[in-house]
Structures are given as C-alpha cells and as structure tokens.
C-alpha cells in the first residue's frame, strides 16, 4: 500500500498522505498519478476524516489497508518463518 504525499512522493503510511478537501483537485491529482502506473497500479481516491489530528479512512477496506496485513506474513517456502 502506498499513499501520495503533498510533494508528490509515494509514502508508506496514511499519516504522511496528502489530504484533499476539494474533490475536483483530488480527481485532477489522481489523473496525474495515473500516468505513473508503472510504479503504482490502479491508484484511487478514498474518503477519510481527520480525528484528533489523525487521518482515518471511512471504509472498512481502507481501515484494514492503513494498518497493514491482517494475517501473519509467511515465507513462500511454507516454513512459516518471517
């Protein structure tokens, strides 16, 4: 999961993401980053709200994505080691 920051760089945490209060501006920025889909696949805008100085996604899907994998990561060889 990657988020776009205010400088146009891709960051790993939601807290670093750029916040758009204007939906037209958000859609324009989305159109711009879609040109860079070789780095990011299927970028999209999602609704969030600011609560106590933290950005919080509104959908269950984005809440899960913001906190990381919901299952323990395993090695592809099946050993169970991280």
Explain what this protein looks like in three dimensions.
The protein has 82 residues and is an alpha+beta fold. The protein has one domain (3-67). The protein has two helices and four strands. It has helices spanning 23-34, 60-67, and strands at 3-4, 10-11, 48-51, 54-57. The strands form two sheets. It has a two-stranded antiparallel sheet with strand order 1-2. A two-stranded antiparallel ribbon has the order 3-4. Strand 1 (3-4) and strand 2 (10-11) form a beta hairpin. It is globular, with a radius of gyration of 15 Å. The chain starts with a strand and ends in a 15-residue tail after the last helix.
Features:
2 helices, 24% helix
Query: Fraction of residues in helices?
Result: 10-25%
Quick check: average pLDDT? 83
Q: Pick out the low-confidence regions.
A: none
Q: What can be said about the biggest beta sheet?
A: 2 strands, antiparallel
Structural class: alpha+beta
Q: Determine the strand fraction and express it as a percent band.
A: 5-15%
The succession of helices and strands, N to C, reads EEHEEH
Beta-strand segment tally: 4
Could you say how many structural domains there are in total?
1
Structure, briefly:
The chain has 82 residues and is α+β, with helices and mostly antiparallel strands. The chain has two helices and four strands, in the order ββαββα.
């Amino acid at each position: 999961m990657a988020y776009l920051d205010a400088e146009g760089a891709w960051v790993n945490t939601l807290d670093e993401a750029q916040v758009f209060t204007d939906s037209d501006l958000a859609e324009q920025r989305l159109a711009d980053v879609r040109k860079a889909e070789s780095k990011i696949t299927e970028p999209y805008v999602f609704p969030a709200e600011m609560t106590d100085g933290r950005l919080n996604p509104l959908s269950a899907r984005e809440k899960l994505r913001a906190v990381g994998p919901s299952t323990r990561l395993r090695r592809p060889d099946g050993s169970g080691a991280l």
